[in-house]
Design a protein that fits this description.
With 372 residues, this protein is α/β, with parallel strands linked by helices. The protein is 28% helix and 26% strand. The structure holds pyridoxal-5'-phosphate.
């Protein structure tokens, strides 16, 4: 990693080389291609730069949740296939066609509207059909799958290029649910094959599915969390060889001694017990920290407690054990400093959340510095 500018109060460092390494790791493990899931601003890492890094690493597909994300990728020059996983309004079909994006279809009435729009422009809209094999979210039921796909295939204006499902519990590999879902899905695929309706491209696995359920790999794996070097769960950790891509850094922006009995922050959630050294750090709940007590950060390679309530843009740390800390010193919210490390997984467990929510919650306003 080369030297980067530190001219921001707080910023993210994103190691695109780590993301490419992680995609290569998945390609090696699964022996097949990766659809890189870059929705939600690349899980907080930066949509366009992660998309470009994934494309360069050989991912033939990117997946996003919304059309706007796909259009941003196209505007940035991304050429590979893009699948929109979520709902797209039928009135957006002209933009979809113009930008050569593939949509997910999970509902006959919406599909009819898509097809009508595409016919109006004398084109065929590329779609992947979504099957709800047990997630309880979007998708045709496997029981009605053959009939649903038959009806879709009769719609002029649609090109059924793929079929997929999503796994609800792949990050709990010991639970039987994933095998049950995959059996359901496989049953439908065999039924479709028998009547000549099986789409050419099949996918099912998220990161945990790709790593822990080889039979879920089909033609491509749809990986999000693993490409960022983050564990799908404690029960489904990443194997050796993956690297976390994200570090969140900040600066001490003020240091002062407050006399005994001073309130710190809104509503005086903390009152000094004696004269105390309090540092102010750039970064608050509007950046992705949580408005709760008990947070900490790394300064001079040591954990320091955040005191007082979390503010929108700033937080305060107790520096009594670090008399040398001064304005401009580096603070780490996520990542390593010296021998200490704060991982998204540890923050998640303290915040009653998961690592997905921690990184997706990193605000768009945080500058992202990309290194390789
Ligand atoms: C439909 C779909 N596929 C794939 C993924 C990627 O999942 P993961 O980040 O666990 O790899 C997601 C993420 O939420 C998703 O919604």
């Amino acid at each position: 990693m080369h030297m980067i500018s530190e001219s921001y109060p707080t910023w993210l460092e994103i190691d695109l080389g780590a993301i490419q390494n992680n995609i290569h790791q998945i390609q090696q493990i699964t022996g097949g291609p990766v659809m890189a899931v870059v929705k939600a601003n690349g899980y907080g890492h930066g949509l366009v730069q992660v998309g470009k890094a994934a494309e360069t690493a050989g991912a033939p597909w990117l997946a996003v949740a919304r059309l706007e994300e796909a259009l941003d990728l196209r505007r940035a020059g991304i050429k590979c296939h893009i699948l929109v996983l979520g709902y797209t309004m039928p009135e957006r079909i002209p933009e979809v066609l113009a930008s050569k994006v593939t949509l997910t279809v999970y509902d006959q009435a919406i599909a009819n509207e898509y097809a009508a729009q595409a016919r109006f422009f004398n084109q065929r809209l590329p779609i992947h059909v979504k099957v709800d094999s047990g997630m309880g979210r979007l998708g045709f039921s496997p029981e009605d799958g053959i009939e649903s796909i038959r009806q879709l295939s009769e719609l002029e204006g649609l090109s059924i290029d793929g079929i997929f499902t999503h796994l609800a519990c792949a990050d709990e590999p010991d639970q039987p649910n994933t095998n049950w879902q995959l059996e359901h899905f496989q049953g439908l695929l065999e039924g479709l094959d028998a009547v000549g309706l099986k789409p050419t491209m099949v996918h099912a696995a998220n990161s945990a599915g790709a790593l822990y359920f080889p039979k879920a790999r089909y033609d491509i794996v749809r990986c999000g969390i693993a490409i960022y070097g983050l564990h799908p769960s404690a029960a489904a950790p990443l194997p050796e060889g993956f690297r976390r891509a994200l570090t969140w850094k900040s600066h001490i922006v003020s240091v002062k001694s407050l006399p005994k009995g001073s309130g710190v922050g809104y509503n005086y959630k903390y009152v000094t017990q004696k004269e105390e050294r309090i540092g102010v750090v750039s970064g608050g709940y509007a950046d992705g920290l949580r408005r709760r007590l008990g947070n900490y950060a790394l300064v001079h390679g040591q954990r320091v407690s955040m005191v007082g309530g979390m503010c929108m843009d700033q937080c305060m740390v107790q520096l009594d054990n670090l008399p040398d800390v001064k304005v401009g010193d580096e603070v780490v919210f996520i990542g390593r400093q010296g021998d200490e490390e704060i991982t998204p997984e540890v923050l998640a467990s303290e915040w009653g959340s998961n690592n997905y929510e921690v990184v997706c919650g990193l605000a768009g306003r945080l500058p992202r510095l990309f290194v390789r």
